[in-house]
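Appendix B, Record 12. Input sequence as logged:
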Amino acid sequence: MSSVPVTTWSLEQTSPADLLPAAAPDGDVRIVRAEVPSPEFSRFLYASVGGDIRWTDRLGWTYARWREYLERPGVETWVAYDHGTPAGYVELEPQDEGAVEIVYFGLLPAFRGRRIGGHLLSYGTARAWDLAERWPGRTPTKRVWLHTCSKDGAFAMDNYQRRGFKLFDTKVELEPEVATPGPWPGAYPA
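Logged structural output:
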């Protein structure tokens, strides 16, 4: 199996004032928290959003592992719907000392390029900043961070920076080259 170099950029906001919100897109776009932990739905979002950009680390997770992760206090999934159809999601994970990581963020391929991504990222970042308000006993958020990589969409880094995220680390590592899995074989054109 061959390897490819993958660049990973880590970005952060250290104050709610850092957030530069995008305008809401035209049409019927709503963002709703998935309040009931659902391994089936979360796996659908993960595979559907990440299938064409080689998200593979969670594809082997069992149902039990998904449930255990999703039931952790403070883990939240916010889903964007376009006219009632899931268009993308942002997943938040609280960490020690008031940090919240945007673990996953993205849109299903059919919804990219329609101004939904900037709006979803803005909304998800705002929910990261106010996460402790929904989870009594959690430390108030002091930092929101994420990472993106050279395998992600072409506009990912620009979207993060336009929302006020600042670069704080860059790494390049060799990773095994994997085929684009898609949510199922043949879902995306080559």
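The two ends are 20 Å apart (CA to CA).
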